[in-house]
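sanity check this chain:
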Amino acid sequence: MRERDLSRVLLVRACETNDPDGRFLPLGERERATRQASMVAARSIAAKGGAGPGQAAQAEGSEADDAGVVVRRAEALCELLEPHRPAFARSRRAANFRIALPLVLVGGVALGLFADVLGSARRINLLSFPLLSLVAWNLAAYLGLGIGRMARRVAPRESGSRVAAWVAGVAAWWASPHRFFRRGVSGDDLAWQATVCASFFDLWRTQAHDLLLARARGALHAAAAALAIGIVVGMYLGGFAFAYRASWESTFLSADGVASVLGLVLGPAAWLLGFDLPGAAVLAGLESPGSGPAAAWIHLWAVTALLVIIGPRLVLAAFARVAERRAAARLTLDLDSSYLLRILAPARGEGRAVDVQPYSYRPSKASEQALRELLLELFGNRARLSVNEPVPYGAPLPSGPDEEPACFVVVFNLAQSPEQEVHGDFLEQMKHRVESGGAGAGLLVLLDREAYLARGVDASEPDDRRKERVAERRRTWERMLRECGLATGLFGGEPLGEDSLEAARAALWPDASRAS
């Protein structure tokens, strides 16, 4: 997916997530954008005559169509939002930043030129030469990169998270709506924009982690090489216009020690240039206040900078550029995410049957409505839901439907106490039915919390305490379900949110791909 398209989708997601009631982004505009994007996708499918022969081609075409709907919808909503809220446009531009390599090189070279490393005294101290510090710093940086590379093999995502977070943080600061005073913008709107921008950069940092990391590394490598180039050029310009002398002084080193240090640092450059490094006797004569010609030393330091700084940094910058292109090519939409499942629900689920089996209780009308809402958003609004009569406590598994469903959904009452010998045995029978029914079926276990909230929890208790009670009872069920190799989701008693949908998607057995 193109980087620009993905940034639009994530920005719209941040807007909708932080505005569930449609106060700032009206719900009607969202629905209209969805319908228009779906109509464009439908016309595109009709023009192409379908996705192509074979199930694989159809599945691939379906995914492409779904992604197209999401992208077109996000584009339409961004066109609605960004003209009146420039912070959103700035956020997307900041997220899609690209540091021009020529600009980095020119800036680094200019900084190096103005550094005046030779100084106005026209005397070079061989042991405090600025390039010696740069060489040491770059060698330490290479060591850090090597350690980081080993760390990425152990924890690929965590090792560069700080760099990616720093890049996203800088971009978020630059795009923050609070940095720009806007007349006619209410405090609530401005606060919402700030929340949206922060949420967008969190999403972008997670989705484009590798891309941000590669770009930051490429810019830093290019800047380090450019700085060294500027320093070297500045040395030669200064040496061309003025006569510099070389000397050294040290509290701890003798001439023999200085010879050893310079041989270690400048030895490779001397070998390439065919120079014989001066021995201790010659260096003793250069000890301050003595001095000697500086031209040879400038040549040696220039070649050393080329070998240790400029060359390796440019190679690393090239590798970072390749990594950036690969990371950009890997950008994709997670069509199984709860947010996109809800957006795509109206067009999904064609020909998909879902068989719902309550166990040992009958859901109330409100619970059944909440259950239908959850399942339709999970499997698509076009899916066919069949809610069966409840199975009595301890009764065996009834005969299955004539048509093989896409998913069997078992519904338990959260207020009941789970029993491995009863509920667990029923689920094992259901798992056996799914396994024997072929690759097309799945199993989902859901807990109805409405009855528990109505009877087992005091309505006067604080919300946090009520949620904790529900969580405690859910953990009791989860311990039993883990023995069956299953997970669970919740519904009823509260408005359907992305967390509930995500939990239900994650609880699909044997895997979550069946919901897409």
Q: What stands out?
A: The two ends are 18 Å apart (CA to CA). Residues 365 and 371 are 10 Å apart (CA to CA).
